[in-house]
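Morning!

This is the sequence you dropped in the shared folder:
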Amino acid sequence: MDSNNGKPNAFSFESFLEAWLVRQKRYLDELLSAQHSSHEARQDDHRELINRVLYHYQQYYERKSRVAKWDVFLVFSPPWFTNLERAFLWIAGFKPSLVFRLISSSANDMTEDQSRRMGRLVTETRMEEKALNDELAKIQESLGAPPLVNVIKRNGSTAQDNETAGGGDDSAIGGLRRALEDVVANADLLRATTAEKVALILTPAQMVNVLAAVAQLQLNVRNLGLQRDTERGQNGGY
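The structure's back. Tokens below.
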């Protein structure tokens, strides 16, 4: 939160993200440990760990949603990510279907029934992704209209700028923000529900493997992005 007005801002989210990533690394260590002791561990232990990890992601999206409501333009090009991380973004986050690529390599012992159910989920998720892509395309088309472009140039892309540029233009930019907020909220909901549905299909041990693969990918992309940004003489992507 901004200490001056109690509102979220980029700096406060960067601080949150740094702490969140520290916890992410700890969860990865737990997941890897659970993998190595899968024969000794009880399913209840795995489920408890899975629930904690999923709640960890829920905390991230809850905090990000506050930023999106404050300035939705910011989450489409977040300064708290590296250039490499931003290259992976799909509607202000990772593409839900990305998890299915990780499932194919980290949970390759699925039963025939699991494979059928997962196949249906893949189809369902991609249809939802397409619907959101179509919705975003409509918004982007409206963005190309000359009056709206002029509004963005005058007002900037941040919610902090409260200067008015005429009633009609204010209404247009406000409508754009609300439309983008809805798309981001629906994309985040799809990300969350996809993970929950995957957890219902996989066994606890398989889900531990998938969550470990997700965390490893995220942290590896983060570290590589920081390294590349530093080499380019940037300030770590912020």
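Headline: The two ends are 18 Å apart (CA to CA).

More detail when I'm at my desk.
O.
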